[in-house]
Amino acid sequence: RGHSSGAVNGQARDGGDQPVVGVSWYEVHGFCEWAGMRLPTEDEWGLVACDAHGWRFPWGNGWPPPEDAGNYADVADDGSDGLEAALGRRRDGYVATAPVGRGRPNPFGVYDLGGNVWEWCADLVDPPPRKGPPHSLDFLFERSGAVLRGGGWCDARPSLLSCNARIEYPAHLTNPAVGFRVAMDAPR
Hints:
The protein is an alpha+beta fold. The protein is built from five helices and six strands. The strands form two sheets. It has a four-stranded mixed β-sheet.
């Protein structure tokens, strides 16, 4: 309630069909508990996105991603931003997040497993050993981290968009390219 995902380059990201971004793992975990849901585990995310199909990327095995594969970084009009070699002359029309479900679903009927926003998974990772005094940058980054999967609207490299791509990100931080999806256990 009351959350704002902000704007990028004048594009508001608070529409009813936009993914929620700029939330920490802890905030998302609290929301999931309140809503009677949960975050998917990293293994669940991987199985649904790629592993069950044996794919290299959430859209299949080919590179670059097809036009309807998801929302990834676009090239500048003149191609000078260096992304052209990675994505060709692809433009999806969104400077940041795109409406949820604008691409094609995977064989399970799940949308946006690749691109749009990196997604928090339920998995926490152990913090590194303490390095600095409280309130130092080293101290901030030794807090527990959580796993992100999926790639985002600002990514264009195969290494960031592959099914193996994962980021261990500090669970207490927020990011305009990080959001989430919810999961539920199947009824028994």
